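FORM 12-B: Structure-to-Sequence Request
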């Protein structure tokens, strides 16, 4: 990227990177990394970090690594690791040959831990985590030393080697850094840097019985990879002194950690722990449920990488926590889809419409515009006959004033086709309207009349003989309040789940061309919203559509009323 473009997108992190590069720090090199733990699926907050780390590398002529911080075999799965790689690629970023794992460095980390022991800066502790917590102190009172803090270097080395090979049960010993139990920063009060875990690791198998803590592995992994700028979210700000302490006391390459505010979004939870609950308690149908803020879920719902990149750029970077309104994300989504989503016809609640003066057994092809925002996409042929279906919401027996859709004696335009006028309608024994009978004006093909009369209402339709039975899943916001954590005393965030976040409609009809559309490809059902074909269409043997977003913000309207 040119220096001009860098200047246009300058923020406090890019300002720092630019200054470091101009001052010759790290010989002018810029090297970042995206280091997720493979203990869940990536979500929209991760996308912000991906865009930042890979984006800065691209802008400043540097490199960006993908590193899986796989230091906890209890929570990590190959499934998650594979999904992470897939999601980063989907967003359009390429780590090239620079895919690393924290587990690649286990031997080196183990040797560095022994170096700390040899310099009397680490010790093996027999306290349980509960006992350590009690001795840790508070923000206003210092902690107490472990009774095992003064073990000899030789004893600590021996015990640590035995921990490595599985001599001791889980939870019986840890390796702790020897720093300062009176530090005002709780993270410096002799933190745990290794714990015993007798569980097979997805990558290293049963080779190791001890695993480094995140704080111990993270900075050293950055150092090994030659990272220059370690970009983290704000929750790691108070961990930075520990990051620095390890690098300085091991006398290794010392990257610069810089923190930025994580992404907080209204109507969404982006805690992996809470999302796991939603999955396990079956509030949603898996990690890729289209209501989830995971990248897998958003892709299934019809989001494009362009939308997420645009959103991330608009949100920008902040030094303090803030909350972004989900309406901005939806705005970016509509703006993107309006430009590139082809248009198609469909009705969610079909009502039969018969054109009594249309020649019996005749049918024709109507030219329909594929995308009014892009004339180069041209037109398509849509079958038309005297038997159609319209949406039940587009007909009223006794319409109010300024009702411009179909009603007895009223004329409307069938999108791309003809003017039709309602002559009568048919009801069943329950009083439900089952059919609308109309006449059409043969001279009005294409939506205009030679006599110049104006018709205010335009409605969509599908051909009765050729339309495709379709299941439509109307997805909405998963939570009914802006802050899902805002509950009454003793409440839980799941209390705020939106009971109407998914509505399944099984009797919809759409134009036949949608069966040929690839899964995930976005399109607009005219006058209804943006949709995409769901992957379940393959196994279900029928067309299944997911609503990506409505054409307008119905939530905003309802909240203002």
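FORM 12-B RESPONSE
SEQUENCE OUT:
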């Amino acid at each position: 990227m040119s220096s001009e473009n860098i200047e246009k997108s300058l923020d406090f992190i890019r300002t720092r990177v630019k200054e470091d590069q101009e001052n010759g720090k790290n010989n002018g090199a810029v090297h970042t990394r995206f280091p997720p733990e493979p203990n869940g699926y990536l979500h929209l907050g991760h996308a912000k970090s991906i865009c930042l780390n890979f984006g800065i590398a691209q802008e400043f002529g540097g490199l960006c690594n993908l590193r899986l911080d796989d230091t906890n075999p209890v929570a990590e799965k190959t499934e998650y690791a594979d999904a992470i790689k897939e999601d980063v690629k989907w967003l359009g970023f390429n780590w090239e040959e620079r895919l690393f794992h924290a587990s690649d460095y286990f031997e080196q980390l183990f040797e560095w831990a022994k170096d700390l022991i040899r310099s009397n800066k680490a010790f093996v502790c027999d306290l349980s985590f509960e006992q350590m917590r009690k001795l840790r102190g508070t923000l206003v009172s210092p902690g107490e030393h472990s009774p095992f803090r003064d073990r000899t270097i030789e004893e600590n080395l021996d015990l640590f080697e035995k921990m490595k090979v599985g001599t001791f049960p889980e939870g019986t010993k840890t390796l702790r850094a020897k720093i300062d139990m009176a530090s005002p920063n709780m993270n410096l009060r002799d933190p745990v840097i290794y714990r015993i875990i007798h569980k097979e690791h997805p990558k290293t198998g049963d080779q190791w019985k001890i695993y480094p803590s995140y704080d111990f592995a993270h900075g050293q992994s950055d150092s090994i990879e030659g990272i220059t700028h370690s970009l983290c979210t704000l929750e790691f700000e108070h961990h930075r002194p520990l990051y620095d302490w390890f690098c300085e006391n091991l006398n290794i390459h010392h990257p610069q950690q810089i923190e930025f505010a994580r992404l907080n979004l209204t109507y969404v939870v982006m805690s992996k722990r809470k999302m796991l609950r939603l999955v396990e308690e079956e509030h949603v149908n898996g990690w890729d449920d289209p209501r989830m803020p995971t990248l897998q879920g958003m892709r299934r719902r019809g989001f494009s990488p362009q939308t997420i990149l645009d959103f991330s750029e608009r949100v920008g970077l902040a030094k303090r926590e803030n909350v972004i309104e989900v309406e901005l994300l939806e705005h970016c989504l509509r703006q993107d889809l309006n430009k590139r989503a082809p248009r198609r016809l469909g009705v969610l609640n079909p009502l039969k419409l018969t054109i009594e003066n249309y020649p019996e057994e005749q049918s024709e092809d109507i030219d329909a515009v594929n995308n009014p925002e892009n004339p180069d996409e041209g037109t398509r042929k849509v079958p038309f006959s005297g038997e159609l279906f319209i949406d039940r919401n587009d007909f009223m027996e006794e319409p109010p004033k300024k009702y411009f859709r179909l009603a007895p004696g009223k004329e409307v335009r069938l999108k791309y086709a003809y003017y039709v006028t309602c002559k009568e309608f048919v009801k069943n024994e329950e009083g439900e309207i089952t059919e609308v009978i109309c006449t059409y004006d043969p001279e009005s093909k294409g939506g205009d009349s030679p006599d110049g009369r104006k018709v205010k209402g335009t409605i969509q339709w599908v051909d009765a003989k050729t339309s495709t039975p379709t299941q439509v899943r109307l997805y909405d916001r998963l939570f009914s309040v802006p802050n899902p954590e805002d509950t009454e005393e003793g409440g839980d965030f799941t209390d705020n789940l939106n009971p109407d976040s998914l509505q399944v409609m099984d009797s919809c009809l759409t134009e036949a061309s949608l069966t040929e559309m690839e899964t995930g490809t976005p399109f607009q059902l005219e006058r209804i919203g943006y949709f995409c074909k769901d992957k379940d269409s393959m196994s279900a043997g029928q067309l299944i559509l997911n609503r990506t977003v409505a054409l307008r913000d119905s939530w905003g309207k309802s909240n203002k009323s």
